[in-house]
Design a protein that fits this description.
By secondary structure, the protein is mainly alpha-helical. It has one domain. It is 57% helix and 0% strand. α3 runs parallel beside α5, α4 packs across α6 and α5 runs antiparallel to α6. The longest helix has 15 residues. The termini are far apart. The model has no long low-confidence stretch (mean pLDDT 86).
């Protein structure tokens, strides 16, 4: 987006940032780590923000991104929202932000074989009303 708006981007800096940011998706043990989730604290902001960034950076869908998106599908609350225990305003403290980022990540990376689950989750979250909380 910055490049589209006329800003010069140093390719080596961009590459270093992407390498750091996308290590959970690109490391040799990324799939194993995503399945085990041994260090995962809160999947809603962790997985959804990572997948949103990956989508915007053009990272192709694969099994690892599918695992993260599927995990998000399972974290949807019975009333359609996603919760977060990460209370660092403004980016990750609200149910609205948690629900919006989870929906965007699921829309981008839910595996094709989970398309009916994806579609149901997205329909369900669209009916969630923040003002009722």
């Amino acid at each position: 987006m910055a490049r589209e708006r006329g800003f010069a981007i140093d390719p080596s800096v961009l590459s270093a940032i992407e390498d750091t940011t996308f290590t959970p998706l690109r490391a040799s043990d990324a799939l194993d780590q995503s399945i085990q989730a041994a260090t995962l604290n809160d999947p809603t902001p962790n997985d959804s923000l990572l997948l949103m960034a990956a989508h915007d950076a053009g990272v192709p869908a694969d099994v690892t991104t599918g695992v993260l998106a599927t995990r998000l599908l399972h974290w949807q609350r019975p009333d359609g929202r996603w919760m977060t225990s990460d209370f660092r305003p403004p980016h990750s403290s609200s149910e609205f932000s948690a629900t919006a980022t989870a929906a965007a990540a699921i829309r981008a990376y839910a595996p094709a074989e989970r398309s009916s689950d994806r579609d149901a989750a997205l329909r369900f979250c669209s009916s969630y009303r923040i003002e009722n909380r």
